[in-house]
Write a structure and sequence with these properties.
This protein is α+β, with helices and mostly antiparallel strands. It has one domain: RutC-like (60s Ribosomal Protein L30, Chain: A, 2-Layer Sandwich). It is about 25% helix and about 35% strand. The protein has a 7-stranded mixed β-sheet, with helices on one face. A 6-stranded mixed β-sheet has the order 6-7-8-12-9-10. A 6-stranded mixed β-sheet has the order 13-14-15-18-16-17, covered by helices on one side. A hairpin with a 2-residue loop joins strand 14 and strand 15. It is globular. The termini are close together.
Amino acid sequence: MAVKLYSVESSAATELYITAVPEPGASPQKQAQQLFSEVAETLRSRQAWLLQERVFAGKGAMGFVRDVRSREYGDIDDGVAPSLLIGGKDAGGGFSGVQVHAASGCGRPQVLVHNEAACGRVLKTARCTFLTLSAMMAGQPLPAAERARAMLEKAELVLKRAGVDFLSVARTWMWLGDILSWYDDFNQVRNAFFTERGLIGKGSRQSMPASTGIGLALYEDEICGMDLTVVVEPAESIEFLEAVGKQQCALDYGSAFSRASRAMTPGGKTIYVSGTASIDASGATTHIGDIGGQIAGTIENVRAVLADMGCRDEDVVQMVAYCKTTEVKKALDELKGGFDWPWLTVICDICRPDLLFEIEATAAVGMRESNN
C-alpha cells in the first residue's frame, strides 16, 4: 500500500493531505482494511480531524469499502459521509484509493446539517474560516439537468445558513455519471445559475471556482453530485485565474470554471488546479487518438498552470489522474514514475468523447512531506 502524507503549517493550524492507494495483488477487502487502518492511525497520531474525503472504487467494491471505513474510523467519523465515487465499466469491482484533507491544532470542525443529514464542516481558526460540503445531491428522482439545478440550490441553501454564498466558493468537484450524454445540459444549468448569482455575466467580477467535471457517479447510482471548498472569512480573499498556463478562459467555450484558484486555508495558501486535459488555447482537443500525446500534453498543461501560480512539481499535495480506459491507465503507469506526485488513478469517462485523460491537482507552497 502506498500512503503519501503532506502537511502545511501556519500559526493557526496544520493541514494534512493524505493519499492512500492499495498495492496490487491483495483482495479488495484486505486492501480496504489495510488502507483505512493506516489512514485512521495517521489521523489519530496527529490528533487531526477530517475536513473532506473522497473514496474511489468500482461499484462491486464500494459497499464493503464503506463498511470497512466505518469500522476503522470509529470516533474519527463525525457523520459527514465521504464522496463515494464509482468509476466506469473498465474500473471493474476494484478499489482505487482514498484522498483525505484534514486539520490539527485548531479544534474539531463544526458539522453542518441539512434535512437531518450531516453534509459538511466549518473550521474556524485565527487565520480564516474554512467550509467544506461533500456529496451534495438533489435527492430527488428528476431528469439529469433538473437534478443539477436542484443540487446547486441545495448547496446554496446550506451556504446561506452558514452566512456565505457561491461568491466565496474556491473549488468545486462535479460528479457526473454518464457525463457524455448530458455534459452540455449540465453546462447550461451551471452557466444560468452562476449568471443569476452574479458569478459571471455583465457587472460580475468573474468569480468562477476552479472545478472538475468528470464521469464518476456517486454510490447508489446518483448521477449528479458535488463537493465544495469555501473561504467564509476573510471575505473576497480568493484569487480566480480564468486563463493561466497555456489555456484560455473555459467560459469562452461554454464551461463556467476558472483554470485555477488561490485561497487562504487554515495552514497556508492553497492552489487548486482545475481538471485539465490535452486542450489548446482555442479550446480544441489535441493529440486525438494518441494516448501518449494526450498524457504528455495534459501534464505539460498542468505544469504550466503550476508555474504561473508560483508552484513547483514538489508543491503538489493531492492529485487525481482520470483515465478513459485501462489502456490509458497502463500507458500512464509507464510514465508517472518520472513525477514525484501523489498519484491516484481512476478509470472513467472524460467530458468529451475524444478526450482520453485528465488531471486535477492541489498544491501548497511551503508544504513538507512526512513519513507515515
